[in-house]
Amino acid sequence: MAVFVRLWAVAAGILALVIAGFVWLAILNFKQIQITLLHERLAVLAEVTAVPFQTAARIGMPLGGVRNADALLERARQSDNAIVGIHVADAAGRVVRSTDKAVEGTSLQMPPGDRARWSWLDGEHLFSSVRLLGSQDQRVGSVTVEIDRAGSMIRTRAMAAELLTSAALIWAAMAGLSGLGLWFFLRPQISAFRMVEQQIEAFESDIWRKQADACPDPHEPSLGTALREAHLRFRRQAPGHGNDHA
After folding, report:
1. Which residue range(s) make up the domain with 82?
2. Angstrom distance (rounded) from CA 128 to CA 39
3. Which phi-psi region, left, alpha or beta, contains residue 123 (left: φ > 0; alpha: ψ -120 to 50)?
4. Does residue 176 lie within any of the structural domains?
5. d(CA 135, CA 22)
6. Angstrom distance (rounded) from CA 72 to CA 84
7. Residue 109 and residue 127 in contact, taking contact as beta carbons nearer than 8 Å
8. Burial zone of 30 (CB within 10 Å; 0-12 exposed, 13-18 middle, 19+ buried)
């Protein structure tokens, strides 16, 4: 029985490792998909919000002087409950307009080079920016949308919990089936191995009790008989054997 339990434990352990690997990859893939969808959604929202500011920049108007700028930004912010703020920054990255007045005057991250769109993570907030071009196609500023990733993280955790529950049920079912399969297909081999173990244990017990010198039954060929015969030959050939029985 101990042999069967060991084989079953190995099979169940391998199944657990394989299933855990698939679950981990699935969670990472789902998380990456969530982040990609957030990036795309924010990019579209940033581009739509940037239209009136881009129009003003093309005619040379300062970004902070756009008419109804606060109303435009607030309307865009209310389009999605996950949006924390929308910020308009100048070419140096200094915020000149924002739905959060406490942010105005601070600096935002600006990309190296002359990229049209960029994004970054800061803790649990995701930022997505689009550049604003002036009359000579020079970069004069950017519009940045800031979103809280808490909703996305909750969805990822919920999916992970469901996936882990399903994986545990699948593992339990497959472990049970593997146990039945091992017992059905390897029962003769397991029984034979168990018999060998019993004969070895009986021989070791006889050694400790000093009963292994008894003559084995030649009409009962077995591993135990072979061990006793080998033990007797060794005892007879060992130096000082005769003195032990003197």
Report:
1. 45-156
2. 7
3. left
4. no
5. 53
6. 15
7. yes
8. middle
CATH code, domain with 60: 3.30.450.20
Tell me the per-residue pLDDT of 183-237, one tens digit each, with 9 for 90 and over: 777 667 666 667 666 666 666 666 655 554 555 555 545 655 666 666 556 656 6
119 forms beta bridges with: 128
- Write the CB contacts of 82 (distance below 8 Å, at least 6 apart in sequence): 147, 148, 150, 151
The set of residues, in sequence order, having a beta carbon less than 8 Å from that of 179 and lying 6+ positions away, is 8, 11, 12
The answer to whether position 102 is within a domain reads yes
* Length of the chain measured in residues: 246
CA distance 74 to 194: 77
Half-sphere exposure of 94 (CA within 13 A, CB side): 5
Low-confidence ranges of the chain (pLDDT < 70): 1-4, 112-113, 186-187, 189-193, 195-246
User: Whole-angstrom Cα distance, residue 163 to residue 160?
Assistant: 5
Residue with tokens 């990019």: 43
Whether 65 is in a domain gets the answer yes
Structure tokens at 172: 């339990």
52 Cβ partners below 8 Å, 6+ apart?
A: 66, 69, 72
204 and 223 Cβ atoms separated by less than 8 Å? no
